[in-house]
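Tokens help. One example:
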Amino acid sequence: MTAISSILRSVEGGGVKFFCPGCKEMHHVPFGDGPGPRWGYNGDPEKPTFTPSILVRSGHYVPGHEGEICWCNWDDKDEFPDLQCSVCHSFVTDGLIQFLGDCTHGLAGQTVPIPALPCGNAP
């Protein structure tokens, strides 16, 4: 991965990652040719727009995982205490992240700029 701006990293195979301040982790947005779902990207690494919305789900929020043992009810949280089930749903337009109301983190309903990439952030 290579930083292409202060807010985006390119991803091998076509796509970019940005740091989500709601989830406090990187979100991957694949675009261009390739397998799987692909998003539209305006090509601006300083003020990116991605279409359609970006939906990231984990744990029991992933379709088909309802009622299964997941991060929120896992017995051994000592090793990974920060794991949690979550939903992050947003529109990214002109470098701003508009978090929708179905987000489970504290930025639900807010619009914030994509933050600079944190130093040392793992891929």
The longest strand covers residues 50-58. The CA atoms of residues 49 and 114 lie 11 Å apart.
